Amino acid sequence: MKRQWLASPYIVWMIMFIVVPMLLVLFYSVTEQTADGYRFTFDHFRRFVDPIYINVLFRSVALALISTVICLLLGYPMAAILASKEYSRKKILYMLIVLPMWMNILLRTYAWMTLLERNGIINTILSFLRLPPLDILYTNKAVVLGMVYNFLPFMILPIYSVLSKIDESVIEAAQDLGGNSFTVFRRVIFPLSLPGVMSGITMVFMPAVTTFVISRLLGGGQFTLIGNLIEQQFLSSGDWGFGSALSVIMMLLILASMGIMSKYEQEGGGGALW
Amino acid sequence: MVMRFLKKTYVFLIFAFLYAPILILIIFSFNQSKSRANWEGITLKWYMELFKDRQIMSALYNTILIAVLSSIVATLIGLIASIGIFSMKKLQQKVVLNLNYIPILNPDIVTGISLMVLYIFMKMPLGFVTMLLAHITFNIPYVILSILPKLKQMNKHLYEAALDLGATPIEAFWKVILPEIMPGIITGFLLAFTLSIDDFVISFFTTGSGFDNLSIVIFGMARRGISPKINALSTLMFISVLALLIIVNIRMSKDNTERRSKIEKSKDNGRYLPDVGHDI
Question: What homologous superfamily does CATH list for B66-212?
Answer without folding.
Answer: MetI-like (1.10.3720.10)
